[in-house]
Amino acid sequence: MVVRFASSAPRRALGQRGVSLVELLVSSAIGIFLTGGALLVYIESRDAIQVSASIARLLENGRFAFTLMEPDLRAANYWGLHDFPAVIEGRATDTAPLGVAIAGDCNANFSLDVETPLAGANAARPGDWDCMTDDQHRAGSDIIIVRHVSEESVATADLEAGQLYVRSDESPRGALFVGAEPAGFSPFAENHAMVSNVYYVRPWSFAADDGLPSLRRKILREVGGAMILDDEEVIPGVEDLQIQFGVDMNDDQAADAYVDSDNNAILDAPGTDVVSLRVWLLMRAENPEMGYSDTRSFTLGDVVRTAGSEEFPGNFRRVLLSRTIAVRNP
């Protein structure tokens, strides 16, 4: 008799077969290709979102700057119940200026120069200014000076000690004062707080070596019972500010030409009024962008700025914004 023992080795199921090495390599290559493609799409989408967010932030910052500046510039030469600064007593050019002490003023009676409600400095800080030094002003950028009074009138009972006001009536008469109201005005006279602002670009924002230019404003305000020309930041990332004045030469209240603020031959000509301004802001991202190189040229009025230089490094995103602002009281 023959005894047969069953084998302990598992039997391969009929029809079962493995993956060959070639098939494994092909499938791995396809998987790597698809994964790499998906990763590339993700990276490009992420970069596009970051670029869009950076540009959107620049546009938002620029719009904020214009939102602050525009109503201020529109109100130039507004003095309450009339727009005749030459009749305001105590002004800088009066035979008896008010003589109020204003800490940090740019020069003597600078903030009382109501007969110059709108002015500018072209590309450089005025040499006689004490309110800023050359290294606090970004060379080549313009400066805007605007003076008027606040839109809201202030009742006698609400006058603040130390605050500078203009009292005016329709006679027309006006007077700068601090403290008690000047006498001799009609019963309908109004008090308005004096406004004197200076917009400029500083080469830095928080510290002299941070390299982040910023739009700043010197603003006349009352602090601790005294008037000062204070300094505050409007928005960081403003690399350049340029302005031109729109001048009306034929009394039709429309700008016939736009000129720089130092074009005295036109601005001081008889019968010429400033009726509008063109303002350009070159906005720059706060941080450089690795692998990005900007070589574009930006035109701000009669000034051209080209990215890629030492003053305008090419590894920053930039946006140029401009706006034409009409002056309500030419």
Provide the fold topology:
Layout lengths: L20 H54 L13 E2 L12 E2 L14 E4 L21 E7 L14 E6 L3 E6 L11 E13 L11 E10 L2 E11 L1 E11 L8 E3 L4 H4 L5 E12 L12 E4 L2 E4 L11 E9 L4
Parallel strand pairs: 1-6, 2-9
Antiparallel strand pairs: 3-4, 4-7, 5-6, 5-7, 7-8, 8-9, 10-11, 10-12, 12-15, 13-14
Q: End-to-end distance, in Å?
A: 129 Å
Helical content class: 10-25%
What's the order of the H and E elements?
HEEEEEEEEEEEHEEEE
Radius of gyration: 33 Å
Give the overall pLDDT as a whole number. 91
Give the CA-based shape: elongated
DSSP strand content: 25-35%
Q: Total strand count, please? A: 15
Polypeptide structure, described:
- The chain is an alpha+beta fold and about 325 residues long.
- About 20% of the residues lie in helices and about 30% in strands.
- The protein is built from 2 helices and 15 strands.
- The strands form 3 sheets. Strands 1, 2, 3, 4, 5, 6, 7, 8 and 9 form a 9-stranded mixed beta sheet that branches.
- It is elongated and about 115 Å long.
- It starts with 20 loop residues before the first helix and ends with a strand.
- The mean pLDDT is about 90.
List its traits.
32% strand, alpha+beta, nine-stranded mixed β-sheet, 330 residues, four-stranded antiparallel β-sheet
